[in-house]
C-alpha cells in the first residue's frame, strides 16, 4: 500500500527549538508529548525507543535535549511515519522510523531491529481512553490514537519490558483516573516506580500521571510533587511553561 502525506500544519515546540509537521485533523501532538519527553531520562549513546510515536514529537524532543542518542520511532500509521521521517530530517536529528504495531509478536520486533534486552529507554503515550466510557472520534486516526482496546496497556508495557535491557527505563504518560490500571500493568517485571501527578488546573484533580519504571527495579514506589499546567487563577504555571519551552526537565529525568 502506498503511503500518502496527509494535509498538515507546521508547528513549533520547545520554544521554537523543534518544528513538526503534523496532520491538520486527527491526533495532534501537544503538552502530553512534551511532558513525556521532559520526564524521560536519557544519556548520550543510549538506545531510545518511542512507542506510538505519531509524528515523532516526544522522541525528537528527547533527542533535542540529549544529543547523540540512538533513536527509533515506532508508529503503526504509515502516513504518520512519513511525517515522522520528515520531522527527523528537518530538525537535523538522526532517527529510524519503524512502521510496526506495538502489540505485534516478538519476532516482528526483532525483524524490525528491536531485539530483546537491547533498549536503554522506552517512552510511550499509549491510547488511554476506555472504549466503554468514551465515545470514539469519527476520525479513525484520532480514535486509534486515543481509545484503547482491552488489554492494550498490558501489551504495550510487555513489549517495552521485552526490548529493555535489565535496569532499562520505561516512561509513560497516562490518565490520572486510570493510575490503578497503569500500576497493575507494571507489576510484572518493573519496579522502582516514580509518579508525578499532572493537574490542568491547580484547583482541580490531576488529569494525567507521568510514571517512570525500571525493568527489574526493587526500590519502593515514590510519588513526587504534582505538576501544575495552570495556577489557581488559571494562568500558565511559570515552571511548567519553562519546561514546555525546552528550558528544563522534570525530576523523573534527573534522579
Could you walk me through the main structural features you see in this protein, from its secondary elements to its overall organization?
This protein has 8 helices and 13 strands. The chain has a single domain (30-253), classed as Vaccinia Virus protein VP39 (Rossmann fold). Helix 1 (31-38) runs parallel beside helix 2 (57-65). It is an alpha/beta fold.
Helix content: 25-40%
For the record, the count of structural domains works out to 1
The gross shape turns out to be globular
CATH class: Alpha Beta
Order of helices and strands: EEHEHEHEHEEHEHEHEEEEH
Compact summary:
With 255 residues, the chain is α/β, with parallel strands linked by helices.
Q: Topology of this structure?
A:
Blueprint: E1 8-13, E2 18-23, H1 31-38, E3 47-51, H2 57-65, E4 70-75, H3 78-90, E5 95-99, H4 106-111, E6 119-124, E7 129-130, H5 140-146, E8 147-148, H6 152-163, E9 164-175, H7 179-185, E10 190-199, E11 208-215, E12 222-223, E13 227-228, H8 238-244
Helix pairs in contact: 1-2, 6-7
Task: Name the descriptors.
27% helix, alpha/beta, 255 residues, two-stranded antiparallel sheet, Rossmann fold, globular, 13 strands, nine-stranded mixed β-sheet
